[in-house]
Specification:
Helix content is about 30%, strand content about 15%. A hairpin with a 2-residue loop joins strand 4 and strand 5. It is built from eleven helices and twelve strands. By secondary structure, the chain is α+β, with helices and mostly antiparallel strands.
Length: about 375
């Protein structure tokens, strides 16, 4: 499968970092093709030189391998830079940033009346009388408080539930794998980040769209919903989702978009669910809900990270506005949205080491700090 080959390729090393050329305040380097690899224009708030100086460290080896970076201010791209071999048309893997896209799709189904936040989630495996999992709600799955015994990370890595679900014995039917887990805690009592929770949500969406168990029917139904309700209205033309063999969207990990479309998705969130033309695509109240802190982790909302102090925080509390929120993916994928600064920043790449991710977050905080709050 081409996307699978691309995923493996993008996990590999990338050699070299382009040098920045400054010409009359416009920073541009061109690849062999007609499109720029680096374009840093700046605006009235932050000039090109200052932006370029803040972006340079984000392409150094100390942060890993940055493949794409976009800064949008007031809805316009003011800086865009790519590593060699990548460009504006390159679709890059979301990893867990896709969870936030899944949450938006769930919100559309809630708005349609297909789903309800506080109703028990209809899962056949939980339907036996007395099964405590039958009390798990949509709200708890979105807030990562389902209580299911899902181990996101483990040593050795091959024994982690997420790895098993995505790549080994659970990969044929990821929904069934995630839904088979017993409870480790009473629903709603403990925050436990879980890609399995997102897969349960995507299986649920498919079942709301069709009664068929045929994988092709499930894929087509889900794809029609994505295209008609999000991809086309929000102008996310590059959005490509992957499905498992059972026809379940792998919404917690395997989506692909260009850096510009990731930024456009961030702008959709920043603008309270309104698209480029100002029309309401996602209900404003749903975006507010996604940004509401979970009672079990102030740094997490509904499949969205918040810039709050917490023992489990993925952003940069104290170094960026409290109102900042973001979509965060494995090894340093970020869509960072700061409504008070009218700012969206996208970084895509690989930062596998903890010290690389710390340096990356420090650099992103400095970049965001250029803009007044």
């Amino acid at each position: 499968m081409r996307l699978e080959r691309e995923r493996v390729k993008r996990l590999g090393a990338i050699g070299g970092i382009l040098a920045v050329l400054a010409v009359a305040g416009l920073w541009t380097v061109r690849a062999a093709g007609p499109e720029p690899v680096i374009h840093i224009a700046g605006d009235s708030d932050v000039d090109a030189a200052a932006l370029g100086a803040a972006i340079d460290p984000l392409f150094e080896d100390s942060v890993g391998q940055t493949r794409a970076l976009i800064v949008m201010h007031d809805g316009k791209i003011v800086a865009e830079r790519y590593a060699p071999g990548y460009g504006p048309q390159t679709r890059l893997l979301s990893w867990s940033m896709g969870k936030s896209v899944t949450a938006v799709l769930i919100g559309l189904m809630v708005a349609d009346g297909r789903l309800a936040l506080d109703s028990p989630v209809p899962v056949a495996a939980w339907g036996q009388p007395g099964d405590p999992r039958g009390r798990i709600t949509l709200r708890q799955l979105l807030a990562m408080t389902s209580g299911l015994d899902h181990i996101e990370d483990a040593e050795p890595l091959a024994q982690a539930d997420t790895v098993r679900m995505l790549f080994t014995d659970g990969a044929q039917d990821m929904g069934a794998f995630a839904e088979a887990k017993p409870l480790a805690h009473a629903p709603g009592t403990v925050f436990s980040y879980s890609t399995g929770s997102t897969i349960i949500l995507t299986d649920l969406m498919a079942r709301m769209l069709t009664n068929s168990a045929d994988p092709d029917v499930r894929r087509r139904a889900m794809q029609m919903f994505i295209d008609g309700r999000l991809k086309i209205p929000a102008r996310l033309g590059s959005l490509t989702v992957e499905y498992d063999a059972a026809g379940t969207m792998i919404g917690g990990s395997f989506m692909h978009m260009t850096a510009r479309d990731y930024a456009r998705f961030g702008e959709l969130l920043r603008n309270q669910g309104r698209g480029i033309a100002g029309h309401q695509i996602v209900p404003e109240k749903w975006i507010d809900y996604m940004r509401t802190p979970s009672p079990r982790n102030a740094a997490y909302g509904a499949h969205l990270w918040l810039n709050r102090d917490s023992a489990e925080s993925a952003l940069m509390p104290g170094r960026a506005p409290r109102s900042l929120f973001g979509c965060v993916g494995h090894d340093g994928q970020y869509i960072l949205v700061s409504p008070s600064q009218r700012l969206t920043v996208v970084r895509l790449g690989m930062s596998p080491a903890r010290e690389q991710r710390d340096a990356l977050k420090d650099g992103l905080a400095k970049l965001i700090g250029l803009y007044s709050r």
